[in-house]
Specification:
Elements lengths: L1 H18 L7 E6 L2 E6 L5 E3 L2 H10 L5 E2 L17 E2 L8 H7 L3 E4 L7 H4 L5 E3 L7 H15 L3 H22 L4 E8 L2 E5 L7 H4 L4 E2 L11 E3 L1 H7 L3 E6 H5 L6 H5 L8 H4 L3 E3 L2 H7 L3 H16 L3
Parallel strand pairs: 3-6, 4-5, 6-7, 8-10, 8-12, 12-13
Antiparallel strand pairs: 1-2, 8-9, 9-11
Length: about 300
């Protein structure tokens, strides 16, 4: 009799255990830069440490519950509101705030990727860092992943198609515009970036011929001098002012580059110097809105070129 009672009890426990499975049936497995994670479908509370991911979510109409403090591009300025939970910085989470938030999903990327192990212990976490070797492809994958998680697959597909069309249009314009050099200025110093670098999308996807092949592809680019810029003599000079991007006082890029050496280049003489939107390039990078704005800016510069 005792054995029969125990058997019935175990059967009931097993049944209840199986009955609980549907609570997790909505989970999907998401592949990302640091592995695979089981993520709930349409998570209600999302904490986002990566501005590119925040950009994509905003484009898809998904509201983030928590974001890092600090400078953001104008189109994401609503996330500076005091009513939006601040969860640290782009580099360092406020673990107390993150723990208290009760998040359903945490998204890291780029600057915050190193914190993935700690954050993944708090809630399901995915790393949407862009891949410099296939930057545009990684953006497409991130849009697809977020579309899948939030039930926005159709919209995500349209966004990818729109981005591909915009990139294709710019690439076609770039074919007969000569070569280009992309530099970043900060603290009075200059670094150059080429194909395969964090800003290599200018060449790898947008089709601008590199004026200086073989540049270092490290995260901080290759330090260069004004003499280097003159020797390279690009047809186009694309400039990212890091100090302006982070709101730090310093020598503005326009002032720094207005010198005798740079003034002798073809780019300067023809007024082919494009001061790229610093927030879109340096802070956000692989977001949908940031990329469309960047494509529009460069495309307009090409259209107006003499």
């Amino acid at each position: 009799m005792m054995i029969s009672t125990i058997s019935r009890f175990l059967a009931l426990v097993a049944f209840l255990g199986l009955a609980g499975v549907p609570a997790f049936a909505g989970d999907i497995t998401v592949g990302h830069m640091q592995g695979e994670t089981a993520v709930p479908l349409k998570p209600a509370k999302v904490l986002v440490f990566d501005l590119a991911a925040l950009d994509i979510l905003d484009r898809l109409g998904v509201e983030a519950a928590g974001v890092p403090g600090g400078v953001k591009p104008a189109y994401l300025a609503k996330y500076n509101d005091d009513g939006i939970l601040k969860i640290g910085t782009l580099f360092e989470p406020d673990y107390e705030a993150v723990n208290a938030a009760g998040a359903d999903l945490i998204i890291v990327g780029g600057r915050s990727a190193a914190k993935y192990p700690e954050l993944s212990k708090i809630a399901p976490t995915i790393d949407l860092t862009g891949d410099p070797k296939d930057f545009l492809g990684s953006i497409r994958r991130n849009v697809e992943v977020l579309g899948r998680i939030f039930g926005k697959e159709a919209q995500a597909s349209r966004e990818i198609d729109d981005l591909d069309a915009a990139v294709g249009g710019l690439k076609k314009k770039a074919q007969d515009k000569g070569n280009g050099l992309l530099i970043l200025t900060t603290g009075g110093k200059v670094s150059a970036y080429g194909p395969g670098s964090r800003f290599g999308i200018l060449h790898d996807a947008f089709g601008v011929v590199p004026a200086a092949p073989g540049l270092a592809t490290g995260n901080h680019g290759q330090p260069v001098s004004f003499e280097f810029i003159l020797e390279t003599n690009p047809d186009w000079l694309f400039v990212i002012d890091r100090d302006a991007a982070i709101g730090r006082e310093g020598s503005p890029a326009r002032q720094l580059l207005d010198n005798e050496l740079v003034g002798q280049t073809t780019a300067w003489k023809k007024q082919h110097v494009v001061y790229l939107d610093p927030a879109n390039w340096y802070l956000v990078g692989g977001g949908l809105t940031s990329l469309h704005q960047s494509i529009d800016q460069i495309s307009k510069a090409f259209d107006e070129a003499s």
